[in-house]
Predict the structure.
Amino acid sequence: MSFNIAIFGASGAVGNGLCKHYQSNNLYKFSRNPKSSDEIPFDLSDEESISEAISTIPDDISLDIVVICTGILYTDAIQPEKAVKQLKSDNFHSIMTMNALGPALIAKHIEHKLQKDTRSVLAVISGRVGSISDNFLGGWHSYRASKAALHMLWRNISIEYKRSHPNLIAVCLHPGTVDSHLSAPFKRFVKPEKLFTPEQATSYLYKVIGELTIEDNGHIIAYDGTRIQP
Ligand SMILES: NC(=O)c1ccc[n+]([C@@H]2O[C@H](COP(=O)([O-])OP(=O)(O)OC[C@H]3O[C@@H](n4cnc5c(N)ncnc54)[C@H](OP(=O)(O)O)[C@@H]3O)[C@@H](O)[C@H]2O)c1
C-alpha cells in the first residue's frame, strides 16, 4: 500500500534516513537547500516559504504521514550554554524559532492537507533533553527550553486538531543519540553502543511511526516505543 508522506528537513541525518524508508510511497521531500529536483525548498525561519512549499502539494492529495525532522543545537555563532550567564537573547530567539516555532508553523500550514478519513500521523523529531522531569544534568538552556516548548505546542496541536481530524496522531519523537551534524561536537561523550547511525535510528523511528495508535496522540515517544514524561 502506498501512502502520501511529507518529510521536512530531508537533507538531515534523520530526515534523509526516513526518506529512504518511505521512498516506495508518494513522498514529498522538503529541504532548506534542495540538492535534487524532487526536493521542495523551504526555510523554517520564513513563514511564507513554509506556506509556499506546502502549497506545491497537489490539491487532491491528503497526507497520511508528516514527519518534521528539522532542528538546530548550535551554529558557527551559537554554542549550547553550559551556564545561565552564557544566555544571549538573540541566540535564544534563534534556537526557539528553529526548534519550536518553525515546526508549529508547518503544523499550521499543513493542517488542511492532513488525511481526515483514515489514520494519519503528524510527527516532529524532538529530544529527551526537552523533558523537564528527566532533566538531571542541566545546561543547554536554549535547546532544552525550545524542545520543552515544542512538546507543549504539539500537545496543544494534538488536542486542537483532534476536533477536525479524529484519526490524527500528533506526536513528538525522540530518535536517540544519532551520529549527525547536530551531534558531531558532542559524540565523544556518548558510549559507542548509545550512538546510533542514522540508518539505525531511522529504522527504529520507522517502526515506531508504523505502530502508533490513537492512544499515542499528544505523547512523546522514544525510538524504542516507550513514552517519555514531559
Ligand atoms: N542527532 C541527535 O543525536 C539528536 C538527538 C535528539 C534529538 N535530535 C533531533 O533530531 C532532529 C534531526 O536532527 P539530525 O540529527 O538529523 O540533525 P541534522 O543532520 O543536522 O539535520 C537537521 C536538519 O534541520 C534542517 N534545518 C536547520 N535549519 C533549517 C532552516 N532554517 N530551515 C529548514 N531546515 C533547516 C537542516 O537543513 P540543512 O541541511 O539545510 O542544514 C537539516 O535538514 C532535530 O530536531 C534534533 O534536535 C537529534
Observations:
- The mean pLDDT is 97.
- The first helix runs from residue 13 to 21.
- The pocket of NAP is lined by residues 9, 11-15, 32-33, 43-45, 69-72, 98, 125, 127, 175, 177-178, 180-183 (CB under 6 Å).
- The chain has one domain: 4-228.
